[in-house]
């Protein structure tokens, strides 16, 4: 049985608090997947960036289904008087919350339909192989990005290694005139060539792995 499939596993993880998200724990191991996510919702006051390492695509899927997406969805609902932590994990109680709470005035009922569709896709993916699970996550990401508007930015990415993460960042900064490579170098506090080399070393050297992930703490788009 896959432990990542069950909400109780993720409830325990959430209860661990900030220690779980600590960069101290971010030491890359071969075949790890790097999850980076962003939640910005001006209506709910959410402004969160998430960066975690997971051992495989099943762990990523469980996190997205039971922690990341419910945290995103809370921003679309009126939850006055309700502790958000009580409905953070997307188990059976979260499904009932979607039905019971009204959508904020800034959003329409289509949001609820998309929420249900994303959760349904992820739930069905547990019977798939890892390649199919990756495709299902990509499908969910496309739906999630369709919720983006002037008030909301939500997205995530799953990368297979520190070098791929570093290359992705360089490409993102090069393609965005407002940012540029100079901005990235200031944020990671090193030249791009050194940053790329560090990402390579991070794949086999624990100390360099810590150093690499620590260098990302001030990267604006993460």
Could you give the topology of this structure?
Elements: H1 7-15, H2 18-21, E1 33-41, E2 46-54, H3 57-74, H4 92-100, H5 110-125, H6 130-145, E3 152-159, H7 162-175, H8 181-188, H9 192-201, H10 206-215
Antiparallel strand pairs: 1-2, 1-3
Helix pairs in contact: 1-3, 3-5, 5-6, 7-9, 9-10
Overall mean pLDDT stands at 86
> In oligomeric terms, what are we looking at?
single chain
Into which percent range does the helicity of residues fall?
40-55%
Largest sheet: 3 strands, antiparallel
Gap between N and C termini, in Å? Answer: 33 Å
Spatial arrangement of strands, main beta sheet: 2-1-3
Could you give the count of β-strands?
3
Protein architecture, described:
The chain has 222 residues and is mostly helical. 51% of the residues lie in helices and 12% in strands. It is built from ten helices and three strands, in the order H-H-E-E-H-H-H-H-E-H-H-H-H. A three-stranded antiparallel β-sheet has the order 2-1-3, with helices on both faces. A hairpin with a 4-residue loop joins strand 1 (33-41) and strand 2 (46-54). The chain starts with 6 loop residues before the first helix and ends in a 7-residue tail after the last helix. The mean pLDDT is 86.
List keywords for this structure.
single chain, 3 strands, 222 residues, mainly alpha, 3-stranded antiparallel β-sheet, globular, 10 helices
